[in-house]
């Protein structure tokens, strides 16, 4: 669930895209408890009648403290209470932190997509394609967890 930006200006452009729904659907800022300090975001996009694609991006300085798991858990609760039957997420093969978040949320690993997506380029300028896992959970699995 990584989306890398290389400058402040790129970050502003990405935020403006998210404010308008953009390709990520609905985005929600994640702040530290008792603070307005934003440390990340979670997002959900409806894919069909009752399925959502979800993801999260967090400041690396706040990793390893359970913030992503806590925020995603609340997002899942909201989506399942709303109308979701199935929620899925992607995690790059080298993004162990996001894989662990998916597993803590009770999601099952459904498959590995080889050379699925590119966020960065190789030194020669060609796209670097990352291997990506897909995780998912059904509403009935969430209720039983």
Cα Rg: 15 Å
The counted number of beta strands is 6
Could you report the average pLDDT, rounded to the nearest whole number?
Answer: 89
Oligomer: single chain
Share of helical residues: 25-40%
Name of the CATH homologous superfamily:
Gcn5-related N-acetyltransferase (GNAT)
Largest sheet: 6 strands, mixed
- Give the neighbour order of strands across the main sheet: 1-2-3-4-6-5
InterPro entries: Acyl_CoA_acyltransferase (IPR016181), GNAT_dom (IPR000182), N-acetyltransferase (IPR051531)
Pfam family, one: Acetyltransf_3
GO molecular function: acyltransferase activity, transferring groups other than amino-acyl groups
Keywords: Transferase
């Amino acid at each position: 669930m990584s989306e890398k930006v290389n400058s402040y200006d790129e970050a502003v452009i990405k935020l403006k895209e998210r404010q308008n729904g953009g390709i990520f659907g609905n985005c929600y800022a994640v702040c530290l408890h008792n603070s307005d300090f934003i440390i990340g975001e979670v997002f959900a996009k409806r894919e069909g009648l009752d399925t959502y694609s979800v993801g999260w991006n967090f400041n690396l300085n706040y990793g390893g403290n359970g913030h992503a798991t806590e925020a995603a858990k609340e997002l899942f609760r909201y989506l399942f209470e709303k109308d979701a039957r199935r929620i899925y997420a992607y995690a790059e093969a080298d993004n162990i932190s996001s894989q662990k978040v998916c597993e803590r949320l009770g999601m099952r690993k459904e498959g590995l997509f080889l050379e699925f997506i590119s966020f960065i380029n190789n030194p020669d300028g060609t796209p670097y394609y990352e291997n990506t896992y897909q995780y998912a959970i059904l509403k009935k699995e969430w209720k039983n967890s």
